[in-house]
């Protein structure tokens, strides 16, 4: 009886063991594939190499895929077979760790994006893990950045500068010759540079510089032109000249757009004729030098002359007084670079002294 009882217990244990084995086998067969590891985000230089590791568990019966999943998904591999026909890509499988290793050599800018390791369980069930690849790219200033500006004095000016690249470029503003910016500093950091009330002194070339530490960066020159009413300066408000000699009267005009310039005397506009010659010379978009030559001066030509400049923002005028002298003033009366006064008298005295020496030498002979 004891033996029968012992045999019965052994049979129960055996049956229980078989049941446990069956349950374990069933449970293992039912375990869902998982991705236990995926490489973290990668940042690489153009021309470098990157490797993505994807470790999977309980996936022997399933397909494991690598895809590039951006706007349009591109299949790269299935199982241990590479699908993409690109010699820069390679794939290997490590059975010890159940890890698929996707490698890309000679990285190009277009390789940047999201790479996904995926286990396909059914038509509606997938297990996925993704890793992002960022490729360092030098800055390139975008076409939607400001190229030039024409603004009226007193208005608000906004210059914009944007650049692509990775890491995100920093935008720095400078002025030509390191002049002070309207922000009262030599540099300004930001995509938008604003001038709340632009002045004519703010015109000139501004530099938008994009830098992210990759290569030497990128730069754009932005020309700012400010429209303003004329401003006139007269280098010599009073000029003397002898009768029957020529004299040049000058005025310098600063204005934008370039103004219309006239000379008048006694409210009569002067034109080119046997008595006067008017000439204008633009030294820059905003600067014009105007010269009135009074030819073979007569008594009635002495007096006040007015230089007047006008554009759509306003007008300005300045006077030059021409008076009579006994001694001709050089130039334009002669070829010597003197304008009357002490220099002229010194020149005349030197000439008389030289003449006296010559006369003395002749007399002694």
Automatic annotation (TrEMBL):
Q: Where is the signal peptide?
A: 1-29
Q: Which domain of life is it from?
A: Eukaryota
Cited Pfam families: I-set, Ig_3, V-set
Query: Which key words are in the record?
Result: Disulfide bond, Immunoglobulin domain, Repeat, Signal
Read off the InterPro entries from this record: Ig-like_dom (IPR007110), Ig-like_dom_sf (IPR036179), Ig-like_fold (IPR013783), Ig_I-set (IPR013098), Ig_sub (IPR003599), Ig_sub2 (IPR003598), Ig_V-set (IPR013106), Neural/epithelial_adhesion (IPR051170)
Q: Does the keyword Lipid biosynthesis apply?
A: no
Q: Does the keyword Iron apply?
A: no
Q: Name one GO cellular component term.
A: neuron projection
Residue ranges annotated for the Ig-like domain, each copy included: 33-134, 139-225, 230-321
Name of the molecule in the record = Ig-like domain-containing protein
The top of its lineage is:
Eukaryota, Metazoa, Ecdysozoa, Arthropoda, Hexapoda
Q: Which gene encodes it?
A: Dvir\GJ15038
